[in-house]
Amino acid sequence: MKNLYIDFDGVILDTINVTFDLLKELGIDETNEKEVRHFYATLDWKKMLEETPQINNSMECIKKLEESELYDIAILTHVNSLNEIVEKVKFIRKHLGTITIIPVPKQLSKTKMVNAKDAILVDDYSGNLREWALAGGIGIRFNLRKNGKGFPVIDSLDQLLEEGFVK
């Protein structure tokens, strides 16, 4: 069984677009790190997660992946605050049961939290995938426009069940 790590924001839920829209509404400049950090630290994550749409039926796809027994699955997610961790854990427990959740402080690479060697990371951010590949892992980009930026690309998590993804 291959280790499979799935990013949360931009892969499971569309939180990236929703929060960027909120930043614009509030007049917060995305380049102002201090204001952006404050925004994420004070965001009502419970409400955010309840109201943010899934991407391509991601939670049902994760359940199918679990049932396939091809992968040992964990959610590997960057977080900005303790409140974000708490609400993501509650959300995942509610919708995906006992799946492993690994919160990663935004300041750290995902490769510092888990052993990337020969493991798969599905992430929408190519920077994370580059770090993963440098650590000996297999990066798969999640992108609705099918732009892999040099990585194999999927736009639905159940595509990991197709021939060729498990080696």
Architecture blueprint of SSEs:
Elements: E1 2-6, H1 15-25, H2 33-42, H3 45-51, H4 58-68, E2 71-79, H5 82-96, E3 100-105, E4 120-123, H6 126-134, E5 138-142, E6 153-154
Parallel strand pairs: 1-2, 1-4, 2-3, 4-5, 5-6
How would you summarize this macromolecular structure in one to three sentences?
The protein has helices at residues 15-25, 33-42, 45-51, 58-68, 82-96, 126-134, and strands at residues 2-6, 71-79, 100-105, 120-123, 138-142, 153-154. With 167 residues, the chain is an alpha/beta fold.
Can you describe this structure?
This protein has 167 residues and is of the alpha/beta class. The protein has two domains: 2-13 and 53-161, HAD superfamily/HAD-like (Rossmann fold); 16-50, no CATH class. It has helices spanning 15-25, 33-42, 45-51, 58-68, 82-96, 126-134; strands at 2-6, 71-79, 100-105, 120-123, 138-142, 153-154. The protein has a six-stranded parallel sheet with strand order 3-2-1-4-5-6, sandwiched between helices. The model has no long low-confidence stretch (mean pLDDT 93).
